[in-house]
Each structure stands twice: as structure tokens, then as C-alpha cells.
Design brief:
This protein is an all-alpha fold. It contains 54 helices and no strands. Helix 7 crosses helix 8 and helix 35 runs antiparallel to helix 36. About 50% of the residues are buried.
């Protein structure tokens, strides 16, 4: 109420002053003159009132439109400024005055492309005007990540007007981007020599000082900007962020109060208020304020983030998830929203989503310690304790201080063989923390990974002392017993965990896996139904129920009905919709999968994962034109990722539009210059288009433009490889490796040498690489696969074993090694197959390998159950049915084996498994 009275009083005072001064005349000239007086006094709000009145009387007055646009831009209302300045331009207001401001307004609204396309070739008469326009074009190019053009524009601006303040600020921003703080400060000092109190220069210099740890200097600069610019919100906006970041919430509150006096309805004022409310724990107020902002600017990323955090604190998880996903779509490289999203999934018990989200985040930010810890927690919750250890250990190498760092350091020592010291550190840390269990969990996972099961149980007992009455200790013991194949004891522990926490999905899932192995799928289904009855809107237990139905061979219609229940329970979440599409793909119903994905995208149009899935299905079913439109939408949702662009280029290739495909691929390459899939895509497109010489020319152009980068040489090697010129391809690949000695490129060179029939040279290369990179498990894994494909059993086995010495839980290596050893009749195949199965109990190839090994080792009943599970996981893969038939034949059930093989022959005409099935039929 006070605010409204003050506003009314201020309006009355202004009106009375106008009357007293004899300015009551309301002709256009008088209104413009009055507005100019207000602008001279920095009273922009009053000037806007006068100019709007003048516009009403003279809508086609170019000067009125120009002055109003400039004033609106000064207040931060860039969208309205664009309207006014564009109209002024159309009414032929002098271009030297209006064009630089219109370009600035377009850039401020985020329409940088338009600013460049409209004014990139405009020539102005006045040098200062040219400098101003060039500066705004530089800012636009920076926004488009076109730094080469940005530098050219800045130099053009400084050539026209060496003292141009905005140009020097832009130069400083480019220097910051180039990690040149000295150059940035120099450019800002030049700007401040011309305009000592320039807001933008002072704020940017403050940011630089703060980044260098000079917080006092940063605050001094902001205070200088604030005092020198009494009506400017910009320095106050920056001050709020500084104070909030330092936890000085009362000071931040005081600055917000000042902003409210200057401009209470300005977007920045309301945003700052929401930020402070959130920081003070006033989540409901922060949510309401952020919603007000989103009504005006629905795609404003910082506001979406505040809304997501506020709803997260209020436990409005569906809304929080929606907001956070929108943030991630626009700023995929910011770890903050991804951390909150994963933490929210874990908090809600949605372990599968947490795992998927954190894995996706780590592909972009592999060194983010918080994400690595969250990945470890997700694995613990899902029962993959040994896999969790890898994430904790990775985090250890990145942390430098604190008790957590000591814990992680102990894990690193354990991983590098300093076992005695590592275990001693973990035991000391666990004993020294009377309430926390992080050290105990790390000790537990370490023992479990080393197969020291008794000691792992002791660590679980330590957790129980600190968290008595919780489900976690029972779950930990259940995992140990599962590893020991003590299924009766494991079942007791998981059931106890579920009694304590009836919503604990990880324990329910562990029990379901035991049920399925014992042929008791009905028990697993009944357990999930009980969880669903307790919380009908929780989608995850319903999805888990569908998973059990699918694994136990239930009719596809039953699985579909269950997944539709999950969608109805939580229509705003994508998980069940993705599961339904996956179900249709699993059973080979491409049409139903496509229609299901279409319905999902219609219901959740802003969900990037669903769009990508839908586009992929359109592409695979021949709807390439529609896929192009879908991937275009996806690229708009994820403008900073090369992946949607590559998918879009696939659609262009399918439509035989090679020009568009290559254009999109070059954009993807500009976003992430060393992203190998882009390189392969460019080479492939040229070759499909029948232009191998153009492809090589493109590669060599890249080599000239970036002589120190590997990308051009890699591209040439891929082009030659696609033409089966393997020997020639080794030459540019060697150059690529010299510039970027990565495991991926090393693997490609090893494969090329083998393909060129230079196996001795390939082996020498592999030996040399491993000597220089002794911890490169990925390279060893690929070497093993290459040797396995060439029937070099001894070489492949040696490579796989060496890879497991470095990375004991590598599922691909474990599975491949188990299969090879089983083919040789080696009994140790079972150990490796079991290890792979524990880590990936729902991966069809892993389950099939495990079942095949069990059958060969004499555990036929259980082995056949595993192979049947693999068949249910992937019904369209005829290999699993052949393996199942082979197992049936071994038990003497030749009739059953014949039925399975005949089905393969009749339903898999294009499958390599058909010939194998026909051969087995002849032997029965």
C-alpha cells in the first residue's frame, strides 16, 4: 500500500510542476521538448511518459519514435525499444543515429542473428556511428560464438573511434574469453580513461577482480558505479549477485530495496528479489516472483533456474523437473541445474532417471566432482556398489582439501595399489566420524570390489551403528550376499530393507532380480503392485512392474497396459513414455513405437530426449522429411550441442540434400571442433554424395586453417578409410596422433594397421602406446576386440586381462572375455560372466553370455532361464533364440530345440542366425 501512495504522490508532484511552469500545452513539440529536459536530468521514466503522449498525437513522427526507443533501451525494455527504433528507421530518422541503437536493442533481446543479417553490411557516414554499430555487431558475433568476426568488428570500431567505450569493453570480453585477464583489464582501463564512471566497464572490471579473488576491489568498483549512476540498475544488479554469493543476504536485501525505489517493476529488480528470497529460504516467495517473471519471459534461463530450485525446495518435484530440464536444454554445459536434477531424482527415489541424467551430465563435464559423487550415490542406490567405487575414486583425484578429499585420496591409493595405506586411511576416517557414513561406504565398496566379502559386511555393520533403524545397512548386506550367490540371505536383507522403507525401489528391484532367476516372477509383480497401491502416482514402481512382466515373457499387451498406467500416473514425466516406446522397439513393432513417440512429443513438446527418440524413429521408418523438422526443433532446444545438428544432417542425407547436410555438419564442427562423430559425418556425406575429392579437400583445408589440431588429419584418415584405402589412411592418422595423442585416435591407428595387413606393425604400435600410457584401459579393450575379430585368441585374451587389471568392472571386457574363454571350454569363463552379469543384469548380451556359460558348465536349468531372459529383453535378436535351442538340445529336449530353431528360420530371413539355425536343425 505504501508503494502505491508514493507513486501517486510522485505523479501528482510531476503534474503540479508542469502546471506551475506553464508547460500544460500538450502539442507534440512541447512534449518532445519536455522529454528532452527530463532526459538531460537522467529522469528517463518521466521522459518516457512525455514521449508516449507525443507518440499518441504524432505516431509517424520519426524523432518521437527514436527518442522513445532510446529511452526504453536505457530502462532495459529492449523488446519495446526494438519496436520504436525500427519504426523510427522506417520513418527515415537519420541512420547514423538510429541504426546503432536498433542493433543494440536486437542484441539485447537475444536476436543477434537478426542484427548481423540486417546491419552487417550497413555503412554509416559518421565515424562514431560506424564505431558504435561495429561494436554492437562484435557483441552479436560473440553471442554467436563467431569470435573471428567479433575481433574484426572490434578492430573496425576502434579504427573508426579509438576511444569508443563500448568497443573497448567488447575487446575486454574477447580477452576474457581468450584467458587474457591482463589484456582485458588494459582494454577496460582505456574505456574508463574516456568514461571513468561507465557502468558496463566498471561492472566487467569488477567481475574480473572477483574472479581473481580480489573481492574488496570488486565491491569497490561496483560501489563506484552505483554512486556515479544513481538511477542505473546494472551495478546494483551485479551487487546483489556479489552479496548473495558471499552469503551477505542482509546487504543484498538492502540493494534490492534500493532497486525497488528506482524501478520496482523492472525485470532485474524482480529477479534480484526472487534470488534473495530463495537464498533466505523463502522458497514460496521465490517461486511466486519467478512465475511473475516467466509470464513475461518464459525462456529466461536464470529465472527458470530459480523456479526450479524453489519448487525443488517446496518438494513440487514435477514442476521443478520441468524447469530444470528447460534450463539444461538451453545451457547444457552448466553443471548446476544438472546437479539439482540428479539430486532431485535421488531424493524422489527415481534411481534409474538419476543414473541416466548423471551419466549424460558426465559426458559433458567428466571432471565435475559433485556430479561424480552423485553418480556414486546413484550406483549405491541401484545396488551397483562396485561401479560406485569408480566414481568416488575419480572424484578423489580432483579434490584438494577437506575431509572428503582425504576419503577420496584413500580410494585413489586403493586403486593405484597402495592397498595397506589406503585401507588404513579409510578405516581411520570411518572410525573418526561418529555420524557420517561416507567413509564407511567407501570402505564397503573397496572391500566389495576386492571381493573381501567378510570385511564388506563389517563395513555395513559400521554403517548400521551410525544409522540404526534405516534400510541402508540391510541393502548393503544384501548386495554382499548376492555377490556370494547366497540368495536366501540376500533375500532376507532386501526384504528387511523394504520393510523399513516401503518405497525403496532399489531393494525391490534387487528382490525382483532374485525372483526372476528363481522363476518367481509373480512374487516380484505382487511386490511392485503393493508399492503402487501405497503411492499410485509414483511412476517408477509401475515401470519396474512392466520390466518384470517383459523379462518373464508376459504378453506384450500386458506390458503395454502397465506402461500406460505409469503414463497416467505421472503424465508430465518422460520416463514411462520412453519406456513404452522402448517396449514397442523391443518387440519389433516399429509402427507402434513411432506413434507412441509421436504422442509423447505432443504431450511433452519441450522434452529434448523424446524429440531425439522421435526423430530417430522417423528416420528409421522412412519419414526423413518429418525427421528433418523434428531434429530442427531439437537443435533449437539444444543450441549449444552438436548432437542435434548431426541428427539433422542425417535427415538431410536421407533426403539426398547433401548441401544442407554439410552446412549443418560444419555448424556442429564450429560448436565442438574436436568432436569425432562430426568428422566422420562430414566424410561420410561427401562419399555418399560421390565426391571423395571434395572430402579430401575439406580435410586439407582444415589442416591449413588449424595446423596444430588433429581434426583435419583425422578427417582425411576417415575419408580414406571409407574408401578402403587403409594403408594410405595410416599416414594422416599418424599426423593426427602427433597432435592429439588420445586413446580413440590410437585405437583407430591400430585398426588401420591391421586392416592394411600390417599386423606386426600394429602390435608394435600397441606395445609402444601401452608403454607410454600404462593406464589406458580403453585402448586395451579395443585392441582386444580387434584381435578377437581376427581370431587372435591368445592376443585378445592378453589384452582383455590387461584391461581388467586397470579397470576391473569394465562390462564390455568382462563379457567378451567370458565368451572367448567359454568358446575354449575354459572354466574361468563363469567367473567373468558372473561379474559382468552382476554389473549389468539387464543387458541382453551380458545375460545371454552368462546363460550360455552356465549351460556349458552344467548349470543347465539356470542357464536356460538366463538365456530366456535375454530373449525377453530383446525378442528381435535371433541369436539368443539359437543359443536357447542349443541349451534345450543339451538337456535332451530336442523337440523344444526344433521348435525354437524352426521359428528362427521362418521369422529371421535376413539374420545371420538363420544359417546357424538350419545347421543345428540338420544335426537334431
Amino acid at each position: 500500500m505504501t508503494h502505491h501512495r508514493l507513486t501517486t504522490l510522485a505523479t501528482a508532484v510531476v503534474f503540479a510542476t508542469l502546471l506551475a511552469s506553464g508547460c500544460a500545452r500538450d502539442d507534440t513539440a512541447s512534449l518532445v521538448s519536455s522529454a528532452k529536459d527530463y532526459l538531460a536530468k537522467s529522469d528517463v521514466r518521466a521522459a518516457i511518459i512525455q514521449l508516449r503522449n507525443a507518440r499518441q498525437k504524432a505516431p509517424d513522427n520519426a524523432e518521437v519514435r527514436f527518442l522513445l526507443g532510446r529511452a526504453l533501451l536505457d530502462t532495459g525494455d529492449a523488446p519495446a525499444a526494438v519496436t520504436e527504433l525500427r519504426r523510427a528507421y522506417e520513418l527515415r530518422h537519420p541512420a547514423d543515429e538510429v541504426v546503432p541503437l536498433l542493433a543494440q536493442a536486437l542484441v539485447t533481446t537475444g536476436d543477434s542473428r537478426k542484427a548481423i543479417s540486417e546491419f552487417g553490411s550497413t555503412t554509416l557516414a559518421d565515424a562514431k556511428a560506424r564505431a558504435s554499430l561495429a561494436t554492437m555487431l562484435a557483441v552479436a558475433h560473440i553471442a554467436q560464438a563467431d569470435f573471428k568476426q567479433a575481433r574484426a568488428a572490434v578492430q573496425a570500431a576502434l579504427s573508426a573511434d579509438p576511444g569508443n567505450v563500448r568497443a573497448n569493453v567488447a575487446l575486454a570480453r574477447l580477452a576474457v574469453r581468450d584467458n587474457d585477464p591482463v589484456g582485458a583489464v588494459g582494454a577496460l582501463d582505456t574505456a574508463l580513461t574516456t568514461a571513468p564512471n561507465d557502468v558496463e566497464a566498471l561492472v566487467l572490471k569488477s567481475e574480473l577482480a572477483n574472479a581473481q579473488g580480489k573481492r574488496g576491489e570488486a565491491l569497490r568498483l561496483l560501489e563506484q558505479a552505483r554512486l556515479a549512476n544513481p538511477t542505473s540498475l546494472h551495478p546494483r544488479f551485479a551487487l546483489v549477485s556479489q552479496h548473495v554469493g558471499a552469503g551477505e543476504l542482509d546487504k543484498a536485501d538492502a540493494v534490492v530495496a534500493e532497486m525497488k525505489r528506482i524501478s520496482p517493476d523492472d525485470f532485474r529488480t524482480v529477479y534480484s528479489d526472487a534470488l534473495v528470497r530463495l537464498s533466505k529460504g523463502e522458497a514460496a516467495k521465490a517461486r511466486d516472483l519467478s512465475q511473475t517473471l516467466l509470464n513475461a519471459r518464459s525462456d529466461h534461463v536464470p529465472t527458470l533456474y530459480i523456479a526450479g530450485l524453489a519448487n525443488y525446495q517446496l518438494k513440487n518435484w514435477v514442476v521443478a523437473e520441468e524447469m530444470l530440464r528447460k534450463v539444461i536444454a538451453q545451457v547444457p554445459d552448466d553443471p548446476g541445474p544438472r546437479r539439482v536434477l540428479v539430486a532431485g531424482y535421488l531424493r524422489a527415489g527415481r534411481t534409474t532417471q538419476a543414473t541416466e541424467a548423471v551419466d549424460m551430465a558426465l559426458r559433458r563435464m567428466p571432471d565435475d566432482v559433485v556430479l561424480l559423487r552423485l553418480a556414486g550415490e546413484a550406483r549405491i542406490q541401484s545396488g551397483s556398489a562396485t561401479e560406485a567405487a569408480r566414481y568416488y575414486e575419480r572424484a578423489a583425484s580432483l579434490e584438494k582439501q577437506g575431509n572428503v578429499a582425504q576419503l577420496r585420496l584413500a580410494q585413489i591409493r586403493l586403486a593405484t595399489g597402495d592397498t595397506g595405506r589406503a585401507m588404513g586411511d579409510l578405516e581411520r576416517l570411518a572410525a573418526g566420524d561418529p555420524t557420517g557414513v561416507q567413509a564407511d561406504l567407501a570402505l564397503y565398496t573397496a572391500h566389495l570390489r576386492r571381493r573381501e566379502y567378510d570385511k564388506a559386511l563389517q563395513a555395513a555393520a559400521s554403517v548400521e551403528k551410525k544409522q540404526s533403524g534405516t534400510a541402508l545397512p540391510h541393502e548393503l548386506r544384501g548386495i554382499v550376499y548376492s555377490f556370494q550367490r547366497k540368495m536366501k540371505e540376500a533375500r532376507i536383507e532386501f526384504e528387511r530393507a523394504l520393510e523399513i522403507d516401503p518405497k525403496r525401489l532399489a531393494s525391490a528391484r534387487s528382490l525382483a532380480m532374485i525372483d526372476l532367476q528363481e522363476g518367481k516372477a509373480a512374487n516380484a509383480q505382487a511386490r511392485y503392485e503393493k508399492m503402487i497401491q501405497a503411492d499410485p502416482k509414483a511412476e517408477q514402481p509401475i515401470i519396474a512392474l512392466a520390466e518384470v512382466q517383459a523379462l518373464s515373457g508376459a504378453p506384450p499387451a500386458d506390458v503395454k497396459a502397465t506402461l500406460e498406467r505409469a503414463i497416467a500416473a505421472n503424465p508430465g514425466a518422460p520416463g514411462a513414455r520412453v519406456a513404452l516406446v522402448t517396449h514397442y522397439r523391443r518387440i519389433g513393432d516399429a509402427k507402434a513405437a513411432l506413434e507412441s513417440a509421436r504422442a509423447a512429443v505432443t504431450a511433452l513438446p519441450g522434452e529434448a530426449g523424446l524429440l531425439e527418440l522421435f526423430g530417430a524413429l522417423q528416420l528409421s521408418t522412412g519419414e526423413s522429411a518429418q525427421a528433418r523438422d523434428t531434429f530442427t526443433r531439437l537443435s533449437q532446444l539444444m543450441p549449444n550441442s552438436p548432437v542435434p545438428l548431426l541428427r539433422l544432417s542425417e535427415a538431410h542425407v536421407a533426403n539426398r540434400d547433401f548441401v544442407s547436410a554439410l552446412d549443418v555438419q560444419r555448424k556442429a564442427l564450429a560448436l565442438q571442433p574436436d568432436y569425432m562423430p562430426t568428422v566422420v559425418a562430414i566424410a561420410t556425406t561427401y562419399l555418399i554424395a560421390g565426391k571423395p575429392d571434395d572430402a579430401v579437400a575439406e580435410a586439407r583445408k582444415l589442416q591449413r586453417e588449424r595446423p596444430k589440431a588433429a581434426i583435419g588429419y583425422t578427417l582425411e584418415a576417415e575419408i580414406l578409410t571409407a574408401q578402403k584405402k587403409f594403408a594410405e589412411a595410416t599416414v594422416p592418422m599418424k599426423e593426427a596422433l602427433a597432435r592429439q595423442p588420445s586413446a580413440m585416435l590410437a585405437t583407430r591407428q591400430f585398426a588401420l594397421l591391421n586392416a592394411a595387413e600390417r599386423s606386426s606393425e600394429a602390435n608394435a604400435f600397441a606395445d609402444r602406446w601401452m608403454k607410454e600410457h600404462p593406464k589406458d584401459a580403453a585402448f586395451l579393450s579395443m585392441v582386444g576386440q580387434q584381435r578377437q575379430s581376427r581370431k587372435d585368441v591368445a592376443g585378445a585374451t592378453a589384452a582383455y586381462r590387461a584391461a581388467l587389471d586397470i579397470d576391473p568392472d569394465n562390462i564390455i571386457v568382462l563379457n567378451n572375455l567370458a565368451w572367448m574363454l567359454n568358446e575354449q571350454g575354459r572354466p574361468e569363463a563363469r567367473e567373468y560372466a558372473e561379474r559382468a552379469f552382476r554389473l549389468a543384469p539387464l543387458q541382453p548380451n551380458v545375460v545371454d553370455t552368462y546363460g550360455t556359460v552356465l549351460v556349458r558348465s552344467g548349470d543347465t536349468k539356470r542357464g536356460l532361464e538366463m538365456i530366456r531372459m535375454a530373449m525377453n529383453l530383446q525378442p528381435g535378436d535371433a541369436r539368443f533364440r539359437v543359443n536357447y535351442a542349443r541349451g534345450l538340445a543339451k538337456t535332451g529336449d530336442k523337440a523344444g530345440a526344433r521348435r525354437e530353431l524352426e521359428q528362427v528360420v521362418s521369422t529371421s530371413p535376413g539374420s545371420p542366425a538363420k544359417a546357424e539355425a538350419e545347421q543345428l536343425l540338420r544335426q537334431l
